[in-house]
Design brief:
458 residues; mainly alpha; Growth Hormone, Chain: A; 83% helix; 0% strand; globular; disordered C terminus; transport; symporter activity; transmembrane helix; Sugar_transporter_CS; transmembrane
Length: 458
């Protein structure tokens, strides 16, 4: 009997090696397909944050610059209202019909809505209707974005070799930060070549137009994929459910709560660094626009380099230690880091951005595997979409507005540190309570309570 068991284990090991080799080969197509769609989505969000001061003057009454900037960030937050709705819509379809077709539809909606921002009339042309049209386009973007991050992350996780899920899924944030980097760099390039007057007049529109051809490329790449091995296995095993959202709330409610708690620090941290930071450097800390772009670009480069390293490390030491370490960094060092940034010295601001980015990279390197690993295949896309988008909507969408408001209300330029610190504390407590998922078996049915709620420590 022992010999039979050893033979079976050896056969499973051989099969696992063969499957991992096939997955590595498939990732050559999957990574670009997942990445370009994710790039398009976050390219838009990055542009919106990087060009926030220009957008505020273009679409709102610019007699009061701070009020116009607050209005710009309020419209930014409005787009997040639609994310949970979009998450339920796209996530349910992704769990019932597969990942690739849903993701192809999402990327074209995102690219079209981003392009539309670049052709909208201005406040000086049609008055308040310019603001209304911007809100409508942001709602469409939010609806589409509700299906992108969770779907692209699920796609990569379900194609990743079993021992490298952290490393592979970390590239979701690599593509996301590259998109923000591209937005900031393009803003810097246009500022240097056009000058601020031309940029503010019409040059700001150019980056938004770029999204449409990128989206068409994304659709093409995603439609050429096969669906993931895990989803096809669930189909063949008759485990695809007709009501994945109901099953999520029925049997995976603990995992949903864990996922929400994980995302709090990710949502606030991302939008603080990516959307709020460029205008913060210019408006509150009095760096010029070129310096603001340069600090942002260098900070994003640091994050892009570190995220895959932390993803690889999470496959070795587990997801929880890295996420907890990043949270502790934000709780303890956010305020002194913003003080360093506020010193007025360019390289001090770069160092401060890199420090904050390192905390974010530690969290991102582990969290993109930790979130989908909480759920089995047949409810993964929808479950992750619900929890992720609820947290992003409640915490992430309001981050630029709250951070700007804290400065206005307190008169303290470093007060946004309190917000990111509180968010990190919430996530840290959740992570302590959550199971370690690094070596969890992904193939399970939605009714398997053990898979959903207990730890598989290593």
């Amino acid at each position: 009997m022992n010999q039979d068991m050893a033979t079976a284990d050896a056969q499973r090991s051989v099969q696992e090696i063969e499957n991992d080799a096939q997955r590595r080969q498939a990732l050559k197509k999957v990574l670009p397909a997942a990445g370009i769609g994710h790039f398009v989505e976050w390219f838009d969000f990055g542009l919106y944050g990087t060009l926030a001061t220009v957008i505020s003057a273009t679409f709102f009454n610019s007699d009061n610059p701070q009020s116009a900037l607050l209005s710009t960030f309020a419209v930014f937050a409005v787009g997040f209202i639609m994310r949970p709705i979009g998450g339920m819509f796209w996530g349910s379809r992704g769990d019932r019909h597969g990942r690739k077709n849903v993701l192809a539809t999402v990327v074209i909606l995102t690219s079209v809505s981003t392009f539309l921002i670049g052709v909208l009339p201005t406040y000086s042309q049609i008055g308040v209707w310019a603001s209304v049209l911007l809100v409508l386009v942001r709602l469409l973007q939010g609806f589409a974005a509700g299906g992108e991050s969770s779907g692209a992350t699920s796609l990569l996780l379900e194609y990743a070799p079993s021992k490298h899920r952290g490393f592979v899924t970390s590239f979701i944030d690599v593509f996301g930060f590259l998109a923000f980097l591209a937005g900031a760099a393009l803003g810097l390039l246009l500022t240097l070549t056009m000058g601020e007057d031309t940029l503010n007049s019409w040059g700001w529109r150019i980056p938004f137009w770029v999204a449409l051809p990128l989206g068409l490329i994304g659709v093409y790449l995603r439609m050429k994929l096969e669906d993931t091995p895990e989803f096809r296995a669930a189909q063949e095993g008759g485990e695809v459910t007709d009501s994945p959202l109901r099953d999520s709330f029925k049997v995976a409610w603990k995992a949903l709560l864990f996922c929400v708690g994980f995302v709090v620090v990710k949502a606030v941290g991302h939008w603080l660094l990516q959307t709020f930071m460029p205008s913060y450097l210019k408006t509150d800390l009095k760096y010029n626009q070129t310096q603001s772009f340069e600090v942002t670009v260098i900070g994003f480069l640091v994050i892009v380099v570190l995220v895959p390293f932390f993803g690889w490390l999470s496959d070795t030491v587990g997801r929880k230690p890295l996420m907890i370490g990043g949270c502790i960094g934000f709780v303890v060092l956010s305020y002194p880091t913003l003080m360093l940034m506020g010193s007025g010295h360019f390289w001090a601001a770069v160092a401060a951005m890199a420090i904050l980015g390192a905390f974010m990279a530690a969290i991102d390197g582990a969290i993109n595997a930790a979130m989908p690993e909480l759920f089995p295949t047949n409810i993964r896309y929808g479950s992750m979409s619900i929890s992720y988008n609820v947290a992003v909507s409640v915490f992430g969408g309001v981050t630029p507005y709250v951070a700007t408001g804290l400065i206005a209300w307190t008169g303290n330029n470093y007060s946004p540190a309190f917000f990111i610190g509180a968010a990190a504390l919430i996530s840290m407590i959740t992570i302590f309570l959550a199971p370690e998922t690094a070596h969890r078996n992904l193939v399970a049915r939605a009714g398997d309570q053990t898979q959903l709620t207990t730890a598989h420590n290593h």
